[in-house]
Amino acid sequence: MGYGAIMSLGVPAISHAHFLGHHVAVPASALRLFPVTRPKHILIKPSGLRRNTAAVLSAAAGVGGPVLQDFAATALVVGGAYALVSTFDNLTRRNIIEQTLSRKLVHILSGLLFLASWPIFSTSTGARYFASVVPSLNCFRLVMNGLSLTTDEGLIKSVSREGKPEELLRGPLYYVLVLILCAIVFWRESPVGMISLAMMCGGDGIADIMGRKFGSVKIPYNPQKSWAGSISMFLFGFLVSIGMLYYFSALGYIQLEWMQTLERVALVSFVATLVESLPTTGIIDDNISVPLASMVTSLLVFGY
Asked: Could you give the dihedral angle defined by the CA atoms of residues 276, 278, 281 and 285, in that order, rounded to the nearest 10 degrees?
């Protein structure tokens, strides 16, 4: 077959090159017989290398970003918790507020502020464990002081009723364990943990304050509890729960149908109030019974 036949098929018959300054025509057949190749070991694709490097850096940033955010959030929450306790310790030492009121205000605010801090943590799966660091540190302090392995008089006075170290191993310890449980198990995806903490901190905490101040009329089946305390428990437990649910809903963590939610939270608040009013304080602490009743009821009515 001649060059003209090859060209008629649309295939170039010759290739042109320069050799010692002269224009040389090279038949295509010669190119096929003596192809120009490069050694395989020096074939490099810069664009592919750049893509792989970008992918590695992107993956590193994807891992490092959430971790750094969670470290910063943890440090912020630890600092906030320390500032809160120190503030009320100073107020108590200056006799601005009573020790009992200071203890209850710390009970109310520390748990609710801990709950409100959850959105500052990242969306990674490990964020909940970073959040649980703060109550875990408090848990360690309570155990060490409760067993008298160390002595922190300020801590003992701020969280105990009678100033005895062993008290730290009951109500205060149960309190921080519930914080850890709600953070790790329920986190921001479920209303159960939010409602349980709202009932324990907002409901039960305010019930104790109102009961001491206005609790002259006692409940018939439990002389240690008052109508004022129980009504406050139901009302504030309900309001704080709705407030927290709205907070997390507005941030996009949960989606709720509000008419049903109001009814469900009212039921949870009623059950938690009823459990708190029972004469079982000597058997089971309110910091266990109230959040446990709230969790069970919330799981039943919300389903998740």
From this structure: -40
